[in-house]
Amino acid sequence: MVLYGQWRVGKTVILHEVLRALQGAEFGDQVVPVYAMFSEAENFEAKTVTNISDSLLETMDVELVNPWEDFRDEWAAKYGEPKTLYDLGRMLGRFHQKIAPKTIVLALDEFTNIYVAIKKGYVDPSFLRSFVEFVGKSRCVIMTAGGEHSVRLMTDYDVNMLQKADCRLEVKYLSKEDTAKYVEAVITVPSYLGTQDRKTRTIDRIFELTQGNVFLLHKFCEALIRYVQKQNNLTQIDDITIQRTLDGIVKSEPDVISVYFNSLYNPYNELLNQKGQGFGGVRELNLMILKGIVSRAFPDTHSCRKDDLAEDFADEVRFEEFLKTLIERSVVREDSGNLSIPIDLFYEIQTRIERKDENNEY
Question: How far are the Cα atoms of 146, 261, 287 from residue 326, in angstroms, in the given order?
Fold first, then answer.
C-alpha cells in the first residue's frame, strides 16, 4: 500500500493512525505494526536496515522476553549483523516462521529519501531493485511517498511503485465536511465543541486556518487540545480559545514557521538540483513574498495590493517569476490585484511573530 501526495499534506499523520488502529484489540493478536523511516544519511542502505531492525526491537519490547532481540542476537552470532535489504529480508522470513501466525506490518516513511540519497551519491540506483524485491517478499508494507520526487524515481529509474502497489491512496486536502469529521474524531470530549451552532463556528474557523491540510489540522488540533486541557474551568471551545491557542503556538514553538509551513515556501520539486544541492535562494525569496503579504495585509481582508508588495523587491522580473509559481501552487491567491494566503494559519502565526518582535508581547 502506498500513501502518496504533495509534501506536508498529512501522509505521516495517516500512517500513524493506521498503525494505531492495528495495535487495537481487533488486530493486536494478528499483526506486529512497525514504523521506520528511510535514512537521510551516508551508508544509506545499512542505516535504513538498522532503522527497521531497531524499530522492530522497540515495538516488541512490550513482552517479557523480546523475541526479536533474541533472534537478532542469534542471527548476528551465526551470520553477522544485517547490512543490506537482502540480509534483512532473509531475517524477517525466518522470524515470521518463529512468530506465526502473527504478521509484521512494515510502515516505511519517506520513500522519497531514496531519490535524495541517489542524487547525493549515498546509494547506488541499483538499490531500487533490491528494495522492490524486499517489498515483494514482505508480508505487508505500507509506504508514504511524496509527490514530485516519487514521480522522478518512477520515471528516472523505471521503478513504478504506485502501479505495483496493491492499494494506492492519494492524500489530498480535506473538504470542509471531512475536516468536520476529523475535528470531531480528535476532540473526543463532546462538551468541548458545545452546541451545534458553536461546534459549526469552531469547525469553520479551523477549516479557514488549515484549508483541510491534514498535517496542519493535526498540529493545530494537538495545540488546541493541549490548551483546553490546561484550563481547569474551560467548558467549551470558543473564539477566544482559538486565539489563545494561536498565541501559545508562537510562545512554545521557537521555529514555528519552519515546523508548520516549510512546504509552502520550500516546494518539493525544487528541494534538490541535479547535483543534489539545496535551492536556498528559492526558499528565502518565497518566504520573503509570504511574509511581505502578511506585513502589508489589510486586517479585515488579510490581503495586500500586489503593486505595494512589488516595491519591496529590487528585481521585479524575479519577483514576478516566483510569485507566479506560488500562485500556480495555490500557496498564494490573486484576486483583482490583491494577494492573500489561503491557509490563514500562516497569517495568524506570522502577525503574532511580528507583534512579538515589535513589542515583546509574549
Answer: 19, 13, 10
